[in-house]
Amino acid sequence: MEAAWVLTNIAASDYTLLVAESGAVPRLVELLGSPNANVRHQAIWCLGNIAADLPSCRDILFDHGVVTPLLSQFREDMKIPVLRTAMWALSNLCFGKLPAEVQVKPILEIVSQLIHSADEKILADACWTVYYLCGGVDDAIQDALDAGVCPQLVNLLMHASSSVLLPVIMALARISAGDDAQVQVLIENGILNCLAQLLGRNYPKNIKKQACLIVSNIATGSKDQIQAVIDASIISPLIVILKTSETDIKKEAAWALSNAASGASSEQIQYLVSRGCLEPLCNVLTYQDPDLVYTCLEGLENILQAGEAGKKGEEESETNPYAQFILESGGLDKLEDLQDVNSERIYGLVMKLLQSYWEEEVSESDDPNIPGSNDSADSVETTSEDAAQPPAPASVADEAE
Hints:
Elements: H1 2-11, H2 16-21, H3 24-31, H4 37-51, H5 55-63, H6 67-71, H7 80-93, H8 104-114, H9 120-136, H10 140-146, H11 150-155, H12 162-176, H13 180-188, H14 191-200, H15 205-219, H16 223-231, H17 235-244, H18 247-263, H19 266-274, H20 278-284, H21 290-313, H22 321-328, H23 331-337, H24 344-357, H25 375-378, H26 396-399
């Protein structure tokens, strides 16, 4: 045990890789089967420190078959300090892309139980593990849902501790990037009502950013899923965020509102407009993000088409009310400015809108030649999830008994 403790300390320093390459790993894995509980605990701790370092360190651990003996440590009679160390080590091991031969379901079976833990450290590391798996393993989102993690993760959105709430909402954001059926599981478990509370209250910026991302992912789904967003009264908080928050949160809220507008029905568009979405959507047209601007344009096109259909329903009405509002709120000027954008697809959609709804207002002299396409302008990275690091290895001196 003392020898393992020495290696644990060295593995927590700048010499982690040296420990992993020195031949310690197979012996440490072997010690996971020791009849002595203290020896097993120290081996788990050392392996956790190794797993928290470089991908090459984790590769060495996988090469020596660490997963199965580590999972065997999780027992009902485990003391809380040992369970904390084991869960922390497992979460570090799951950071990054796992080898194809690693079975995810046994890991999720354990994690699905530990996300009910009353211990915040165990709870946080269990949620980080879900987050890592859903981003680093093919089909892991469905495996996580099959393991039954969704109801408890949604419940944990109301947890008081930010150290728990952050991995919870990041795990749910990863799940919300799944297909419509997987997203529907989140909706049926009440995630939208929880998100409405998170968006409407004074939560930290990184929490609100992830909440907007989840709404954005849901809003890319079916009209029924867009309606679920509307029914949860999330649109108004999104608009407030678009008007008042920092730029990076505004951007996520803009994605959510643009996605909702792009796929909404006429009745849903009427609701979005009634809540005041047009002016903030027009402001999105000034963002330096071609993919977001294009999605916003698609949303505005859908809104304008609904306004055109509504115009036909009004007796003797020749004015598209949504086009008129965009004109009066300065949105037309922003559209005209986009004629100079170095993106062929944005230019094409802008010209389509200008010629369809404001032909009289736009003079022919305002129409420039189509600029040459620039692939780099159309391929801006839009992923919003910050790269999460594994939880920092616990100090040996702090936890030594």
